[in-house]
Amino acid sequence: xxxxxxxxxxxxxxxxxxxxxxxxxxxxxxxxxxxxxxxxxxxxxxxxxxxxxxxxxxxxxxxxxxxxxxxxxxxxxxxxxxxxxxxxxxxxxxxxxxxxxxxxx
Length: 105
Description:
Helices cover 54% and strands 18% of the residues. The chain has a domain at 52-105. The longest helix is centred in the last third of the chain and has 22 residues, at 68-89. It is of the alpha+beta class. It has a three-stranded mixed sheet with strand order 1-2-3.
């Protein structure tokens, strides 16, 4: 004879999705509040005017850049920027930077 399973309460999919999306959003931006205040000073005014941090997930920093020329230029400075961020935030805070064309405020 088959056992009857206890009745479980159904949860609407929207509440599940909200929880998942909110959890991932916090994870993606966590730590960014430490980088934003010191970014301009760390990279300098010229770079800061054309590139701004957008998200930090783990140790990977996403930086929005003004255009493809800046993206190409910053690829050459990526290791130097990581070294400066390490000095300001602690070793290993940022181990990789991904550049993407996006809004620079």
